[in-house]
Every structure is written in C-alpha cells, then in structure tokens.
Amino acid sequence: MNMFAAPIKPILINRLVPMIGALAIISLATAACAVQESNTYPVETFSEMHYSQAYKAQEPPRLAPPAAAVAYQSDVSTDEILRVPDKQERTYDPVVAGHLYRVNCAVCHGESGLGDGKAVRHITSESSFYATKNGEPYKSPPNLVDSAANRLNDPDVMFSFVSGWNGPVMPQFGSLLAEEDIRDIVKYIFDDNAGLSK
C-alpha cells in the first residue's frame, strides 16, 4: 500500500489544489454578483450611480405639493381642450424676411439672389463632394431673381421647392425652418419693393 500512496499524493496535490482554487474564485465571483444593494436590481456587477446613497446629498430638496393642488381641472369638455387652434399667419416684414434670407440663403445664392454667394467656388469645385460623387462639378446655385420671374414664378411652387425636394445640393429647409420662415423667405424673393425682385 505504501507503494501507491507516494505517487498518488503529488497527483492529488497538483490537481486538487488548482481545482479548489478555481471553485473558490467562481464562488466569490458569484457571491459578489448576487449581493443586492438597496434600491438596485437583484443581480448586478456594478451598482448604478444614480441609486447610490452618496449622490443623495447632491439632489435638490423634494417639496410636497400644496394640499389643495389639483393636477388639472376645467369646466370645458375634453374635445374643446384638445382642439388645436387654426394656424395664425404672421404679417410679412421685409426686414425679418431679409435677415432670414441672408442667414439661410445668401451664402450660396448671394446677397442679391443672383447665384453668386461666397460658397459658390466650393460648390462648383472639381474636388467638391458633389463632383467626386457624380463625376462632374455642380453647375452653380440658381439665380433666384430669374427663377422668380421665369421658372418658379408662382410663390406656392417656390415654397414647395424650398420646403421639400429641391435638388442635389440645397438642403430641405422644411425640416430646418418653420413654415412661416420659409414663406417669409419666398415672399422676400418675390418682393419687388424691398426684396430681391426690386
């Protein structure tokens, strides 16, 4: 029997000690994940910071609502409350419309709407994104005074063009500006007293 005891002892030590160590690490890791802190989810590795009691001091004081407070009370019916009022169109002001035009349009179409803005040399460049994508440079931003007089001579058509699809380079201003702002810009383009068409 002594003959077998000597070779088994090193085998047990070499295999059993690493196995016990691995089991200890696994049990510690499992126990650490299963500990539930107050106000947190049942199983988590790291507690969320907004549940931490250390951040409680940084929160503003919570005030109770007044005793007689009512969330909402009205003598009017629900249908009357939910009715959206009709759109109120603002009056056209050429100064406001001119400012909107200069901020949003003049960089490409120019201060006077002739298609000679400061960005034209970049838009029409051989190395522009449009040129590299399509194989040829963009011709140039259109002359808005000419467009208002000839091609897009109806303000509603011009409004639709500016709001929706309007070519490969110009952004769709319908998702960037309010409808009233776009209408003011279009009126400014067609305005023959104080706008571009004077």
Description:
- This protein is mostly helical.
- Among the domains are: 9-48, no CATH class; 94-190, Cytochrome Bc1 Complex, Chain D, domain 2 (Orthogonal Bundle).
- It is 46% helix and 0% strand.
- α3 (94-104) packs across α9 (179-190) and α8 (155-163) packs across α9 (179-190).
- The radius of gyration is 36 Å and the shape is flat.
- The termini are far apart.
Helix content estimate:
40-55%
User: How many strands in all?
Assistant: 0
- Mean of residue pLDDT values: 80
| CATH architecture group name of the domain at 94-190 | Orthogonal Bundle
Class per helix and strand makeup: mainly alpha
CATH level-four homologous superfamily name of the domain at 94-190 = Cytochrome c-like domain
What is the 3D shape? flat
Q: Show unreliable segments.
A: none
Largest sheet: number of strands, sense, barrel closure: none
How much of the sequence is in beta strands?
A: under 5%
Order of helices and strands: HHHHHHHHH
CATH third-tier fold name of the domain at 94-190: Cytochrome Bc1 Complex, Chain D, domain 2
Oligomer: single chain
Cα-based radius of gyration, to the nearest Å: 36 Å
Q: Give the termini distance in whole angstroms.
A: 117 Å
* CATH class wording of the domain at 94-190: Mainly Alpha
